Amino acid sequence: MNTSWTQKKITLKPRNRGCYLVTDEILSHISSELSEYKYGMANVFIQHSSASLTINENYDPDVRRDMQMMLNRLAPEDAPYIHTMEGPDDMPAHVKSSLFGCSLNIPISNGRLALGTWQGIWFCEHRNSASGRHIVVTLQGETKSNSNANLSKKSEL
Fold this sequence. Notes:
This protein is an alpha+beta fold. 26% of the residues lie in helices and 42% in strands. It is built from 4 helices and 9 strands; from the N terminus they run ββαββααββββαβ. The chain has helices at 23-34, 61-74, 90-100, 148-151, and strands spanning 3-12, 16-21, 37-46, 51-57, 103-109, 112-113, 119-129, 133-143, 154-155. The strands form 2 sheets. It has a 6-stranded mixed β-sheet with strand order 6-5-3-8-1-9. The longest helix is centred in the middle third of the chain and has 14 residues, at 61-74.
């Protein structure tokens, strides 16, 4: 068995508040390493408390707009928050981040993320504006026979 771990840190470009499909952006950074795995798990983790990740609809962008509308209703800026020193959008951003979470576990199958046909990775920016966000992707699993020497415990953090 050729079990291996690989880890990469990715910086997403800065975005305004909203939900964004980032599957291709993430894959552009990990596809060569990912292709070496027969099966395993990919953990995608965002290193921030006011942004989040989720898996959802990858086809119709209206779903992302509707989700943003509902998130704003669930955690409005004008609620009577106590934590306000970082601005009116900060505490609602923390609430929204906790609703979706900061990490995803996605199965790896034959060198690909085993997402469903209509599933994609969403990055949700919950602040009105923010700098680039950092994501750590950790791949773990059984690799193809000749690739283990190149991937074993590789990290680019």
